[in-house]
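Interim report, section 4.2 (structural modelling).
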Amino acid sequence: MTAPFFQVEQLTKKFGGLTAVNNISFTVQPDEMVGLIGPNGAGKSTLVKLIMGILKPDRGSIRFKGKELRGQNPWDIVNRGIAGTFQNTRPFRRLPIIANVMVSCLAPRGRRRGEWVKRIEAKARDALEFAGISDLALEPAAHLSHGDLKRLEIARAIATDPELLILDEPFGGLNPVETELLAKSIRRLHRGGRFGRLHSEGMAMIIIEHKLSELMKIVDRVIVLHFGEIIAAGTPREIVKNPAVIEAYLGEEGA
Amino acid sequence: MIRVWLLRLYRDFKGDILALPGRTLACLAVLALFIAPLFIRDTYILRIITLTAVYAVFAASWDLLSGYVGQLNLGHALFFGVAAYTSAMLNLHLGLPPVLTIPLGALAAVMAGLVVGIPCLRLKGQYLSLATLAFPIILKGLVYLFKEYTGGELGISGISRLAGSRLVECYIALALGAVLCFLIWKITDSNLGLIFHAIREDEITARASGINTTAYKLLAFCLSGLFAGIAGGFFAHYMRLAGPFTLDVLLSFQAIIWTIFGGITTIYGSVAGVIILFPLMEILRAFPEIRMLLFAAVIVIVLRFMPEGVVPWFLDRVEKECPRCKERNAFTRTRCRVCRVSLSEREVRARTTTRA
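Predicted structure of the assembly:
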């Protein structure tokens, strides 16, 4: 049997007495788009930070294409093909937007994959073009609106040529029009194709989101977290009918 | 063939240097520094010019580490001192010529960069600064402890001179200073410089972008050590002395004062800071009692009115940034020299208000 594309096994992380992520296991296939939902404090962002290598897990394993990622540095994980965005955007504020993305293109993975492209600036511009903010390329990142910062995060992540993209609340704080546009971009990214100098074969995705209506429209499968544990997993249709999920979101009375 | 090359050189010179008042002035200043020694017979003034060139490299190397990578180093004299002592010892005990001792001294400073850099990787902000402050103080203690090797308070003297005459030494210093400062500026202007900027702005985002921040921070410590080390080795051979002064806290702080006065995170700002302040200190020797007071007053007043430093303040006055392509233009221009968009403030304001 071949190893799964991406696999999390019995992952646990404790902060003092609080177990933020408790014994979580799931897999993601290369052509899948998985939604990760749960109420506030369910451990979603902690899980992402564990996968990205920003936090170290207490127990369990994270495997990507058969290789163990646990204990690796964040940059090694990115260079193996996993990129993520932050829930609270963290741009290089005083650098121009294009420079924000060029930094990703300078990482070993971005450079190796794009060797035939002599000018990394052109590649960075394509990533911005895809995210829809190329007209602001020369402005400093501190001048961007919240919605554009979310787009910048995505441009920065895709510039590393990831095979698995993890988006932490990409629609957070966006208005309905911006949300619709971004959802379209994400679907396009998942399908793959050529975006200027960036070539993607379609990437697997894990999307964390609070706006369930948007999320349910685009993902293939949903995993629900509550108090650091998986309480349900299945297709969006199954999840919305699942009593445990309704209880977690609305409380016993609501259910 | 030669004519084509000359024409191209002239065109580049006109387009890239003469087009901007800041660069033109910098070129004139460098030219003046190179021509002046020919007409100066006074060794004291020659010495000021030489030391200005040496300290310019030292200040620029501090800017590379602290301004660009954001690793605020309060003990930068460590690199200077380690290189000065290494060069002096190699010269005195092994009889190596300066051509060898200065690079070997710089290599020792690179090692010092690693020694400081590795424990400092886990520290940030003020804790990092305090740790870096400690290293030269520790080394100074060791210098006093092992008097038989280091000469204690008197230092190591009697090492060989760089060249036969002060004028030649002055020219070597000027050439070396110009080349090294240009090299440091080129590093900060390259892809490596972009990564340094990114690490200063947000280390976690840099890591999430696939940048090995640990390696790049160490590289910054080593590069900074290398350049400060070359300056230190040169200093020892020029003064024919490597004393505890080269490890002094005051010397570390001088690099910081010069850089912040000229404009941090610019390289050319730190060089300009040295060119202005170092000769000023010598002029102020005319008033020995109130020399430091006057010096401090000048710095406080200048930074009160030019908080970003002298050079950025000046450049903002004589150059304007194109609102569209962000290229710099001389203040006399009405249209951008690259994208031809209008630079007049009234038109820019009118355009932005209509868009809003």
